[in-house]
Amino acid sequence: MRTLEECVEAALSILTQKIRVEFAADPKTVLRDGLGLKVRHAEHLSDQRGDGGACDGVSFLRDGVILYAPTPQSRRENFTLAHELGHWLIDQTPAIYDWLFEQADPNQELETICDRIAQRLLLGESDIDQVLGGSAVQARHVLELYERSNASLPACAIALASRLSGVGAVLIIEADPDLGSAVVGYASVHPDPERGWPKVYPWPGQSVPPGHPLRSIRAGGFIRRRSFWAMPWGLSADFYLDAVEVRGRWVVVMADTDLWGAERFHPVAPREFDQRPEREVNCCGLTQRVRGFPCSKCHQVSCRACRKCRCDRQDDELVMCGGGCFLKFRPSLLVKGLCEECR
């Protein structure tokens, strides 16, 4: 397992082609009758939007239970059910967890894989091809794909983000003109095929940076220009934007290159990526090559199997004194379960 897309393929390979085809038409029936999962709607989930607003659901994998917030007359619950099925599929594929352990932010990668699984179950590649027609991804394509399919807007965003050639994202900006706020409601990030996840990227829940053109929503608005994005802690990077306003929100495509010929001048600015070192680890009877930052104390990368560095393994060998001092010692330093001070 080397890439995010390979993880998606591995998870989807668990499903038969018949299940995959039938899921898009009737997700709940396929989950219940085809996979033997229990699907229950839970009204209380409507009050909080998991994964930055894209998925209103939660899974109890060991019990085979999926809870979701019902959204009558909406496609949103289809995406939620497909996303939660993604979590169930990943739980059947241990190799994906091994890959996630090597990533800088496993939780973000996990949710991205589940989003990609959901998109693949709800949208066919032919639908995407017809909308794009051989042209570069644009914000209007998200809306066109939404109109011609049974998929939710986030699912359409994911589908088109996967067609970006380099670093970029497709996102939905929710704005409140009265409060002067603009927040990322949903974002599907496309990492660099070779260098991986960038250090600067939009993510659900982030506020649009001050001074950004996406902070002001205007009816019928359209933006195509060079701009930037900034992380909450201040790190920023340049991006090119293609955005359209629809029903009080921005649908946006961000890219590291000018896909649409928006500018005449294209300054080259360095972009930072996750560059964690790869180390050899001897643990659990295995010799492994593991990517990650070493522990600041023992300078060892955590084992992929037990998830522990040398410090963690040494801590596991310690025993708490039974005399009430709540300190841990090596077993050889305890006499009848008590340390020297408590004896």
Model description:
With 343 residues, this protein is α+β, with helices and mostly antiparallel strands. It has 3 domains: 1-122, Orthogonal Bundle (Arc Repressor Mutant, subunit A); 134-275, irre protein (Beta-Lactamase, 2-Layer Sandwich), CATH 3.30.450; 278-333, no CATH class. It is built from 10 helices and 12 strands. The strands form 4 sheets. The chain has a 5-stranded antiparallel sheet, covered by helices on one side. A 3-stranded mixed sheet has the order 1-3-2, covered by helices on one side. A two-stranded antiparallel ribbon has the order 9-10. α4 packs across α6 (106-122), α6 crosses α9 and α8 packs across α9. The longest helix has 17 residues, at 106-122. The chain starts with a helix and ends in a 14-residue tail after the last strand. Residues 46-54 have low confidence and may be disordered.
Structure characteristics:
343 residues, alpha+beta, Arc Repressor Mutant, subunit A, 3 domains, 12 strands, globular
Concise summary:
This protein has 343 residues and is of the alpha+beta class. It contains ten helices and twelve strands.
Number of domains: 3
Q: Categorize the overall geometry.
A: globular
The CATH topology of the largest domain is what? Beta-Lactamase
Share in helix: 25-40%
CATH level-1 class of the largest domain: Alpha Beta
Termini gap: 53 Å
